[in-house]
Write a structure and sequence with these properties.
7 helices; 129 residues; mainly alpha; single chain
């Protein structure tokens, strides 16, 4: 019985890390992911100071899923490429079986960012914002 409770608690924690990015307009995780996608899609080498400020707000918003916060933080820190910590965070999101596909896709684009998003990556991101 105790083991079942622990498994249930762990499942809830994992799911809370990546609350669904559903298409519902009132979903704050989806809205934040859309903002991040829009920034990444138009970024050239790094985010502007205004974009960095907004990304830092998203990263600090404890009401959002940790994966969304990690993506915002990673993008805010990009200088031509994501740093090693950011790449590792994006790899964790992509490997998480509980992460929604939108999150995995966005994490993949962020993790592979090199000076700017490729045309293929921009096409993937276009449906997110």
């Amino acid at each position: 019985m105790k083991m079942t409770s622990i498994k249930t608690l762990l499942s809830i924690i994992c799911l809370s890390l990546f609350a669904q990015f559903s298409t519902a307009a009132d979903n704050p995780n989806a809205a934040a992911a859309g903002e991040i996608a829009a920034i990444v899609s138009g970024m050239n080498h790094w985010a502007t100071d205004e974009q960095k400020a907004r990304l830092r707000e998203i990263a600090a918003d404890e009401a959002l899923a940790q994966g969304v916060r990690d993506m915002a933080s990673t993008v805010a820190d990009i200088q031509h490429f994501p740093n090693d910590a950011g790449k590792a965070a994006m790899a964790r999101i992509q490997a998480d079986e509980n992460a929604p596909e939108m999150g995995k896709t966005l994490a993949g684009v962020i993790g592979n960012f090199a000076h700017m998003a490729s045309d293929e990556d921009k096409a993937k991101l276009a449906g997110m914002f």
